[in-house]
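Long-time lurker, first post. I've been practising inverse folding by hand and with some scripts of my own, and I keep getting stuck on stretches where the structure tokens seem ambiguous. Below is the full token string for one chain I'm working on. Before anyone asks, I'm not after the true native sequence, just a reasonable design that respects the backbone. If someone could post their per-position residues I'd love to compare against what I wrote down in my notebook.
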């Protein structure tokens, strides 16, 4: 069902790799809600992924390669996006995460610091770059909405989430700090959505993913939030219905973050002890 919540809005969506990607679902939903947008991903992901299929399904959205750690790439992305969309940008989704330490299975206590820097640079500082470049180039409309995706490992320990936990803590902090400045400059909103475990390329790359997916699903009174429902939440955050929400980390997790124990998990443990 479409409410045309984004009718007439122009956006940039980073991070759609394949149909499992959260950004992919956001793009489909944003298109259905009447937005026009460009799609961006790292040049290597454009070669490996299926983004052109998504672009075709979204009214032939233009695909623009940009490594989110490169200021030059971001400048070109903004210039081209404003050109093809015909004006300033109303919403940005940062749906980007990567940790070489996670990929290579290097334990947190034995970290490789070059990798650690890359995790922070790609997964968190890129969000700062996205906003800093947008501010310098005066890309955002008054009241625009900027979102990034986070995970509760920023607040609580999930040992195998590795250095991505530190990257998410930094990402959420950058959302608050930059949110202040963009709010003052142009009433721009900046928030992070802290999403349930979701079966995507980045998600399933984390060791033990299946176990904590199941655990979260059993603990959360509503169960895990799907990528589709995350997309719904992103649309509301891009819309004019949330113009006074900023600098928040918004849990979108079926109640996981506030639940201590659930009957489902008690039953599981009792089965185990019987
Ligand atoms: N899947 C989960 O369980 C889950 C839970 C909470 C939050 N998140 C977050 O959601 C976001 C999207 O991840 P996803 O789960 O959809 O997985 P995904 O693998 O589909 O998306 C990650 C994206 O990051 C892009 N990327 C990596 N390096 C980049 C760079 N240098 N420049 C530009 N783009 C780059 C990848 O190409 C990919 O498109 C990430 O921030 C992730 O941490 C995921």
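-- Answer (accepted) --
I ran through it position by position. Result:
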């Amino acid at each position: 069902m479409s409410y045309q919540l984004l009718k007439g809005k122009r956006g940039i969506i980073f991070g759609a790799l394949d149909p499992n990607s959260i950004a992919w679902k956001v793009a489909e939903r944003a298109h259905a809600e009447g937005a026009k947008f460009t799609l961006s991903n790292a040049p290597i992901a454009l070669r490996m992924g299926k983004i052109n299929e998504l672009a075709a399904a979204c009214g032939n959205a233009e695909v623009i390669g940009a490594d989110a750690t490169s200021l030059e790439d971001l400048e070109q992305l903004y210039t081209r996006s404003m050109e093809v969309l015909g004006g300033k940008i109303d919403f940005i989704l940062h749906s980007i995460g990567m940790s070489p330490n996670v990929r290579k299975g290097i334990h947190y206590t034995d970290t490789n610091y070059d990798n650690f820097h890359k995790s922070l640079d790609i997964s968190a500082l890129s969000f700062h770059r996205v906003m800093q470049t947008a501010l310098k180039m005066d890309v955002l409309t008054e009241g625009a909405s900027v979102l990034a995706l986070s995970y509760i490992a920023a607040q609580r320990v999930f040992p195998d989430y590795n250095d991505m936990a530190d990257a998410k803590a930094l990402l959420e902090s950058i959302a608050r700090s930059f949110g202040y400045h963009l709010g003052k400059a142009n009433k721009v909103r900046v928030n992070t959505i802290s999403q349930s475990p979701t079966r995507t390329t980045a998600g399933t790359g984390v060791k033990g993913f299946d176990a904590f997916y199941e655990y979260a699903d059993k603990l959360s009174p509503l169960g895990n939030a799907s990528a589709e429902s995350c997309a719904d939440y992103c649309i509301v955050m891009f819309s004019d219905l949330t113009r006074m929400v900023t600098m928040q980390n918004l849990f979108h997790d079926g109640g996981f973050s506030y639940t201590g124990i659930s009957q489902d998990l008690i039953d599981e443990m009792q089965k185990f002890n019987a």
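A couple of notes from the structure itself: The chain has a mean pLDDT of 97. The two ends are 47 Å apart (CA to CA). Happy to go over any region you disagree with.
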